[in-house]
Amino acid sequence: MYSNSLVDKLKWSLPWLVRYPKWRANELVRRWRDSDGETHIILLIANHYEPGLGEPALRRVEKWCELAQATGDAVRDHDGTPFRHTNFFPAEQYERPLLDRLASLQSSGYGEVEIHLHHGLEKPDTVENTRMILEDFRDTLAIEHKCLSRESRSARPSYGFVHGNWALANSAGGRYCGVDSEMQILAETGCYADFTLPSAPDESQVPKINAIYECGKPLSQRVPHRSGVNLEVGRAFKPPVIFTGPLVFDWSRRVRGLPVPRIEDGALAANYPLNLNRFISWGKANISVRGRPDWIFIKLYCHGFFDQDQDTMIGSELIGFMQQVFDLAERTEKFRIHFASAREAYNMVIAAVEGKSGDPNDFRDYSLREIMREDSKSDSSLRAELTNALI
User: Fold this and answer.
1) What's the 3-state SS for 245-313?
2) pLDDT at 368 over 80
3) 241-243 and 191-194 beta bridge pairing
4) Which site in 93, 95, 236, 371 is 20 to 30 Å from 24, CA atoms measured?
5) CA-closest candidate to residue 163, choices 130, 208, 129, 122
6) Contact partners, residue 74, CB within 8 Å, separation at least 6
């Protein structure tokens, strides 16, 4: 039996906690050095979207799509792009009607679909089964629903990834995965980036925090992302990259007048109300490509199937919060907001690495383009083209 006590959580958190002061000091220096000019904040939402199965799931998806469109219509960024989530859908919960509806939402511009996977729940999964599930779901999303993206018409589909139960590359002590070489499988099946982290105080949290980076260990090893080199302008890299969200301390909470810190990990949930202090904390994580400090990436996350959280992640609370953020941007004239999908944010990262500058909005389709946005052609022709690319 696996323990989940406070002592265990502290033990699991020590690797990143002991590195936090050095990271914080480095960021303060970097912020002072790079403080001039307007900042572009690229905001993306990694939604661990698990609606379930059957008719109840379809009702949840229908409700979600209505909320997503209403929120997107109410809140648009400085480019006119609607607020939207990237819906990481679990391969093991695939049902065609659910993906038909989410693909329609994507076609309307209110949220793209990527891959999520829970496995190894009852016993450790195998390399062969993990590869089969990922390939089958990738192909189903691309061929049957025209979701995902690719670099060209001759290229296979690419995908962003979120690991269920946080256990990327067997990082949770053998639970919820079992496949040490999972990162290698992701690379070989077309994953461009993983968006799972942060996961503190879970055992799966690695020492490396607040970064967009390459795995520092061979991809065939267990937890190769425990360390790595940050992406930077002018230095080539190999996907999949690790694209983390903020992991910092929020000191705004008071208990009997004294500051009591809590972990700020970018969660959109009802028990952590949205406010400008949180927004400022996300920005202070300074997640960017080195050499392009004026492009700050804020990856938040949520679980779209939790009804009690929906007002925070895509409802009225979220709308009111974003209005405060835009008001702050207008008053200070220090930053601009760009809503991005996981794919678009990755494209902006590639553009930054290749020396592009200016407005990141210009690079939403820089490398990976949505399959459904390609020049129109018959379903049979697209199916044949994608099938040939996968051979």
Assistant:
1) CCCEEECCCEECCEECCEEECCECCCCCCCCHHHHHHHHHCCCCCECCCCEEEEEEEECCCCHHHHHHH
2) yes
3) parallel
4) 236
5) 130
6) 83, 319
Between 30 and 118, the higher pLDDT residue? 118
Report pLDDT for 1: 40
pTM of the model: 0.94
* Residue ranges covered by each domain of the chain: 6-390
The reported pLDDT for the residue numbered 14 is: 80
H, E, C per residue of the chain? CCCCCHHHHHHHHHHHHCCHHHHHHHHHHHHHHCCCCCEEEEEEEEEECCCCCHHHHHHHHHHHHHHHHHHHHHCECCCCCECCEEEEEEHHHCCHHHHHHHHHHHHCCCEEEEEEECCCCCCCCCHHHHHHHHHHHHHHHHHHHCCCEECCCCCCCEEEEEEHHHCCCCCCCCCCCCCCCHHHHHHHCCEEEECCCCCCCCCCCCCCCCCEECCCCCCCCCCHHHCCCECECCCCCCCCEEECCCCEEECCCEECCEECCEEECCECCCCCCCCHHHHHHHHHCCCCCECCCCEEEEEEEECCCCHHHHHHHHCHHHHHHHHHHHHHHHHHCCEEEEECCHHHHHHHHHHHHCCCCCCHHHHCCCCCEEHHHCCCCCHHHHHHHHHHHHC
pLDDT surpasses 60 at 88:
yes
d(CA 110, CA 85): 7
User: What value does the mean pLDDT take over residues 128-156?
Assistant: 96
Structure confidence at residue 278 as a pLDDT band (50, 70, 90)? very high
- For 20-49, write each residue's pLDDT tens digit: 888 788 777 666 556 567 899 999 999 999
At 2, the pLDDT band (50, 70, 90 cuts) reads very low
Neighbouring-strand partners of residue 88: 48, 114
What number does CATH give the domain 6-390?
3.20.110
